[in-house]
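pasting for the record
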Amino acid sequence: MTRVLVVGTGIAGLTTALTLAGSAQVTVVTKAAATTSNTHRAQGGIAAVTSPEDDVAHHVADTLTAGAGWADRAAVEALCAEGPARIADLIEAGVLFDRGDDGAPARGLEAAHSRARVLHAGGDATGAAIAAGLLAAATRAGIEVREHVVVTELLLESGRVVGAELVDLTTGRRESHRWDAVVLATGGAGQLYPHTSNPSVATGDGVALAARAGVGLADLELYQFHPTTLALPGSFLVSEAVRGEGAVLRDVTGERFMLGVHPDAELAPRDVVARAVAGQMLTTGAPVTLDATALGEEFLRRRFPSIDAAVRAAGLDWSREPVPVTPAAHYWMGGVATDLWGRTTVPGLLAVGEVACTGVHGANRLASNSLLEGAVFGHRAARALLGDPAAGGPAGPQRADLVQVAALPDVPAAAVPDAPAGAPAFSRAALQELMWAHAGLIRDEPGLAHAEAVLTRWAREAGTASPAPAYRTGQPGAAQPGADRATLTSHEDANLLLLARLLTRAARARTTSLGAHFRSDAPESTTPSPELVLETH
């Protein structure tokens, strides 16, 4: 029986595991608790065609439009066409989607959707409901789920992934196992930035693992920033669905500034809204506010119970007064390049969900397509592993613009730019502030060059100018009590430093603006040739 390791317990990883259950021997690992994932935190919902008033063609068109001309049409068509079946799978797994007073599924409207097609569960707790349903289904299926286990290295033989090295963070024990296939479902890298809607575990581990193994990466510069998180510690996400229900954004004078920015105002594509919010903040030095007062206290409590509780816990009453909001890192469109079946450039390794770059989101993800992506492409990856004839043909991504990084070159000391005067020593906080200032919502060549100089200096000082495996801990079978948290933090920091370098390099290489990648020194968005090849040295 085929043996498969799935890394991650979000919707993509668990869908893959459940589809394989009974036909393969599956082990699922996660470096934290099984419920700690971006899926669990997802508020807005999951987009799919489930209404006679909607159709796949409209969902495809909306996704392509939001993607700023950079989405892969075949990937988008697979996502939208298979969406309804994956919703049925979730319902079968026990996920209870919200229904209206008439008993029909309640469907919401979010930015850049032409139809109300976003399904919710528990109001604004859709991700938590999906995660709970899938974890319960995994338990019923007898799937082994190991918590607090981190994958530190992929094992390769003859150009194929044949297993992985793990560290059990509870015991400190290092393990080395062979698998017939490894599926990365580790989510994104929101911890590259100080303001993020992502959980603390979102440190880009899967992309870093793939990079060190020489796997092709793509679109690393394309990072989406959500326009509205509370402008308070923790950056609590205020779902786009709140604006879909009628909330509006106001500047420091109380005026609705989005009316003059885009015809769809608050429901414009996320990159447009996020940059407009950031522009207001730069101009006035104050947060903008989200005004949901017209929706009323009863509606806000019922429709958005999690957000309502968070806002009130912060001492704010959003039914009576607008609340301050700020953009935050939300979703990485780039990542490990795959084909439409999750296969990467290296046999034996697949990637699904946010860690993957299928091309389905283009340069700006359509709201509520991310949970659907995890379900659709997790299912497709499992089918490929099970030998589905439909997955035949060339394996792996066929695009020309891949970044393949077996190792960033070990730059001679003389060639490393001097760190600017006053540049801080490396810390995760310093890296996050550097990325926010120079490789965040708004970028330009001087800022990106500055960031690359600092990042390169940090990498040399850390001894990781070439991204060898982040660490090895003892000998196989050797327990190292007390090393778990320090080991994990060191591993995550090494991953974030590598990914920051790769993202910044990619952002410098794409000299024009494209969707979420906005360069103030070339603000007119253009669609580059797909033959563009990014150099990594």
